[in-house]
């Protein structure tokens, strides 16, 4: 029984990070119809910002861990939002609903941003202290306090995003644009402005994921790229552009990784994920929650 | 233009040409290539690799360069990031050998990228020094390849033997290896060595480099409850992440990282759970067994890189010293002549006088004969607990 609870806890903690990461990616695709390969670099930027701001705030200003992290978190979101605005205004804005153009642009951005991170921060992994340095036991299974916080934040952010999309005027515009851009424009929705907001929400979601992962993971200049492949698997399985699909896909992939990794090994679990993608593409190309192109 | 003016211009041009020619002969440069991970989990190895190479080049340049055929050659280091994978390794190989026309690779790291590099270097007649662990990169079919650090056949019997000696009650082990050429080349001799020591291998699992979530791996290891966990060829950052998860799950046992090189990366990621880890590629270059040059380099590395040198990173220094000694002995810059000379000479490495050998194991004398050093993380620092000199080197030095 304890083992099953542990596997469930593993699934929850892994799925939470994947969900945060994949939500931004799928939202950007839904609104802009672009596949953003540079999404991982936003995640990386946030983690690097935490690693840059937190240690001096703690050791030079003498702030407690939580205060240093809070300042670093705000800085990380600001940095990523600024990068997002620049990238959108000078890049993606010119390639809205252009899969090939945006693909080339985002690959170029990955090379440029990863190269810049390496030049600025160096290649050595960095580490910041956890906010909550305790282990919790739940019916004999274990989870760190930091990981539990991450799960709670991920759930909170997802609920907030759901509320924004379902209950606000901006959410209605985002859904309308995702459903049918031309019809939405005919109704008076300013597509470019909505696309900018959608892109910024997506990048901020990546930033939150990166900032939350910073205290639990060694921070490198390519950390976001390592999550990107999983996020693509998730949104293909869940359905490109579907928020619900990203949530289901994230926990499905986390379940395979957790249970497959336990009963077989990590490499076999990775192969199983790619097999799942092939099966989904063969049987339901639009993904579990995606809509077929009419 | 008057005749006088033409004569003046011609004389000036001739003087310039002559001065540039004489300058070339005094300051010719040999390009030395490095293919190593400069980003990602194994970046600390690549950064140290480059730094140690630059120190060796600076020292040789300051002493007048490599002297061959009555000329002096300064050294220039060219480093490219192979990202520890075959694809990038192949790109780096093309860049170094076809664009930069490098004739000597003084450091290459990671079996998969090294195989990609070796496929081209042997064909183009380029001398290749490597840290690649695989037996597959050595042998008579690769006459230009030389290993610059100890590999599993030198490290594992000493490391595992020492662990078994210290923990005679340890009966079982779980291995976890990266699923690539380096991991595969390490896992086979690792399993064989543990079995030869009477330790039961409960499981030998693989993980992909770039894995971000290690809880499933740790859960499986903890449920098997082995006496020993062997992280094989896992880089310190990955091993540290798994150790941290294992400590969350309450597993306490003997920990070994065969390719473990430094305590700092382990301690950064694993915290207190890095305590007691045995490592096969770390060295205490501040300790009593260290040579003066190792102490000096270690101090410099700590200032420049924020962490001390280890067995891997100091490998480029030793390779450059071997290259210099062989080129000057043979009085030739031809990589093939240098490769023929290397097994015949004794040269001054950072460890002291050493040579190349290992023909009995690899079929060709292309293994640098270095002491095997077993270390342990104690109080967050690397402490040398055992050192064994290769018997073949002792024999060579006596003769």
UniProtKB/TrEMBL annotation, chain B:
Lineage: Bacteria, Pseudomonadati, Pseudomonadota, Alphaproteobacteria, Futianiales
Domain of life (superkingdom): Bacteria
Keywords: Amino-acid transport, Signal, Transport
Family statement: Belongs to the leucine-binding protein family.
Protein name: ABC transporter substrate-binding protein
PANTHER family: LEUCINE-SPECIFIC-BINDING PROTEIN, PERIPLASMIC BINDING PROTEIN OF ABC TRANSPORTER FOR NATURAL AMINO ACIDS
Residue ranges annotated for the Leucine-binding protein domain, each copy included: 29-361
Record GO biological process: amino acid transport
Signal peptide range in chain numbering: 1-26
Gene3D superfamilies from the UniProt entry: 3.40.50.2300
Coiled-coil region: none
CDD domains attached to this UniProt entry: PBP1_ABC_ligand_binding-like
InterPro entries cross-referenced by the UniProt entry: BCAA_transport, Leu-bd, Leu_Ile_Val-bd, Peripla_BP_I
Pfam families, sorted: Peripla_BP_6
């Amino acid at each position: 029984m304890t083992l099953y609870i542990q596997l469930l806890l593993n699934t929850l903690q892994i799925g939470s990070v994947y969900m945060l990461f994949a939500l931004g990616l799928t939202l950007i695709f839904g609104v802009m119809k672009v596949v953003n390969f540079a999404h991982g670099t936003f995640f990386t930027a946030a983690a690097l910002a935490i690693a840059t701001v937190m240690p001096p705030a703690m050791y030079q200003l003498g702030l407690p861990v939580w205060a240093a992290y809070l300042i670093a978190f705000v800085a990380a979101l600001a940095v990523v939002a600024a990068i997002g605005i620049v990238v959108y205004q000078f890049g993606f804005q010119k390639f809205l609903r252009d899969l090939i153009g945006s693909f080339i642009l985002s690959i170029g951005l990955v090379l440029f941003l990863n190269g810049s991170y390496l030049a600025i921060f160096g290649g050595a992994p960095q580490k910041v202290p956890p906010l909550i340095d305790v282990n919790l036991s739940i019916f004999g299974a274990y989870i760190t306090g930091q990981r539990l916080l991450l799960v709670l934040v991920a759930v909170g952010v997802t609920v907030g995003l759901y509320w924004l999309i379902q209950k606000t005027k901006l959410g209605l515009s985002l859904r309308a644009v995702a459903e049918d851009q031309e019809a939405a424009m005919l109704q008076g929705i300013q597509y470019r402005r909505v696309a900018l907001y959608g892109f910024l929400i997506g990048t901020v979601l990546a930033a939150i994921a990166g900032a939350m992962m910073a205290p639990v993971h060694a921070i490198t200049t390519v950390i976001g790229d390592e999550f990107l492949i999983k996020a693509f698997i998730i949104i293909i399985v869940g359905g490109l552009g579907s928020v619900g699909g990203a949530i289901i896909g994230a926990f499905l992939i986390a379940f395979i990784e957790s249970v497959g990794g336990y009963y077989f090994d990590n490499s076999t679990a990775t192969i199983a994920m790619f097999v799942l993608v092939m099966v989904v593409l063969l049987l339901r190309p639009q993904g579990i929650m995606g809509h077929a192109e009419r | 233009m008057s005749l006088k003016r033409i004569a003046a211009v011609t004389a000036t041009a001739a003087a310039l040409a002559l001065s540039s020619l004489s300058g070339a002969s005094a300051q010719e440069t040999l390009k030395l290539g490095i293919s190593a991970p400069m980003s990602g989990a194994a970046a600390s190895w690549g950064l140290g690799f480059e730094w140690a190479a630059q120190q060796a080049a600076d020292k040789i340049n300051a002493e007048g360069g490599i002297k061959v055929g009555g000329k002096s050659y300064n050294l220039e280091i060219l480093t490219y990031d192979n990202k520890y994978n075959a694809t990038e390794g192949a790109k780096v190989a093309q860049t170094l050998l076809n664009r930069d026309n490098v004739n000597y690779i003084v450091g290459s790291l990671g079996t998969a990228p090294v195989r990609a590099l070796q496929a081209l270097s042997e064909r183009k007649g380029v001398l290749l020094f490597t840290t690649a662990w695989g037996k597959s990169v050595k042998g008579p079919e690769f006459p230009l390849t030389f290993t610059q650090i100890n590999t599993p056949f030198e490290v594992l019997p000493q490391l595992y033997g020492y662990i078994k000696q210290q923990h005679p009650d340890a009966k079982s082990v779980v291995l976890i290896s990266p699923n690539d050429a380096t991991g595969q080349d390490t896992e086979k001799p690792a399993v064989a060595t543990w079995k030869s020591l009477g330790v039961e291998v409960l499981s030998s699992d693989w993980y992909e480099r770039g894995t971000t979530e290690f809880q499933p791996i740790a859960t499986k290891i903890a449920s098997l409850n082995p006496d020993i966990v062997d992280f094989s060829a896992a880089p310190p950052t990955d091993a540290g992440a798994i150790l941290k998860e294992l400590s969350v799950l309450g597993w306490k046992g003997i920990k070994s990282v065969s390719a473990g090189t430094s305590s700092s990366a382990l301690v950064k990621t694993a915290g207190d759970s890095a305590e007691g880890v045995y490592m096969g590629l770390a060295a205490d270059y501040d300790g009593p067994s260290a040579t003066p040059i190792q102490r000096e380099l270690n101090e410099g590395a700590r200032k420049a890189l924020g962490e001390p040198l280890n067995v891997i990173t100091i490998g480029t220094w030793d390779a450059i010293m071997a290259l210099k000694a062989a080129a000057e002995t043979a009085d030739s810059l031809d990589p093939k002549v240098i490769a023929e000379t290397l097994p015949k000479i004794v040269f001054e490495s950072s460890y002291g006088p050493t040579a190349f050998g290992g023909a009995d194991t690899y079929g060709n004398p292309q293994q640098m004969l270095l002491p095997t050093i077993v270390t342990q993380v104690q109080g967050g620092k690397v402490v040398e607990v055992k050192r064994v000199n290769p018997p073949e080197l002792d024999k060579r030095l006596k003769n």
